[in-house]
Each structure stands twice: as C-alpha cells, then as structure tokens.
Amino acid sequence: ASDVGFLESLASEMFAGRGSRGWCRNDMYLLLQYAQLQPRVLYDETVLAGGLKGLKVLVMSECDVLTRSVADAIRRFQQGGGLIVADEHLAPAITPDILIKRPVRKDKPDEDKAAIQAGAAELRAQLDALYQRPADSSNPDIIARVRRYKTADYLFAVNDRRTFGDYVGQWGLVMEKGLPAEATLILNRPAGHAYDLVAGRPIPADAAGGVLR
Q1: Distance (Å, whole) CA 10 – CA 20
Q2: Segment 119-157, tens digit of pLDDT
C-alpha cells in the first residue's frame, strides 16, 4: 500500500463547498503525480478507522473544515512523525509541515500543465529531503508507478507528454496528441535485474547509491 495519503474531506465538501463532485476541480492530486508520488485517497471514515497507519505523508487539499475526531487523529499522526502537506485552504486546527499553493486553471491546457508541474517541482524541493519514493523519474512528463509482489517490483511508466492535435486541439482546448519522451527510471532498491515485460527482454540497469536506475 502507498505511504502517501490524499484526504477527501466530506466535512469540507458539505460546509465549505469543496470536493470534486465526481470531476476534477482541484489539481492537487495531479500535481502529486507529477511530483512522482503515489497517493491513495482517504475519506473521513477511513481516517477514523485507522487509515493513517503506515502513512508517512498526508496531503490535505481544500480541507477548510474538519470534524474534531478527524482533526484529532491527524494531529496524533503528525505528533508521531507524519508529515502534513497542505494548500492554503486548511482548517486552522492543523499546522502543515509543507505549505504548497494550489494551482488554479486558466483554461489554457499548455499553461495550466506548466503551472501544475511548476507546483510539483516546488513540492519536491521541500519534500525530497524528508521522503524517499518507491519509484522516481528524471522526466516529470513520464510518471512512474510501482507495485510490489514478494521480491519483484512492477514499474509502470506513463508518458504524459502531449501537444495540441487536429481534433479538439485545433481550438486550443485539449492537448490530445501524444509525443515520444525519454526518462531514466529509478527504483528504491539497492540491486536487481530489469526486464521489459512488453518486449520480453532484459534492459540495462545500474545499481548505485542504494537505488536501481
């Protein structure tokens, strides 16, 4: 399970008009992916059922309103060494370890993506000394995701490098045309062998500094 959590607060949705309502109005989750984090979504009831156990980082975006029981659980998590990353919309009962400004879209896809990736770089500048990811990528356009089973790591690389195509893109609304991209992928393990499971062949992997590239 991921050791990064992303809180979707029902109290904030009900009393502060927050929440996605099934579609993305808040790009903080996307920002986390560009920062090469693998957040799992938590809800108020998840927190109260012990959902903070095993987490190292809790991201609180648009959490203006919290129930007392959820706020108490979060404070205990922080007092136990957990890190709180939050935007400017945070209940005053919680003091974040890292404050990151929530990106606001301008309905210009290229500019919006650049702003979100700039926010991801800002978060990395503050978080990287405190947290080590299970997987990383040298290129923010290529998002690394890792799943583990016994002694094997399954590393997925999602290429998100896109430009305007000739369908919806011709009106500047969506960058729907995929472009090639390259990256060095990093696994948080000291040694191992790497295979391209799609091509069915080994691929070069160098172990140094406690990680596999």
Answers
A1: 11
A2: 999 999 999 999 999 999 999 999 999 999 998 999 999
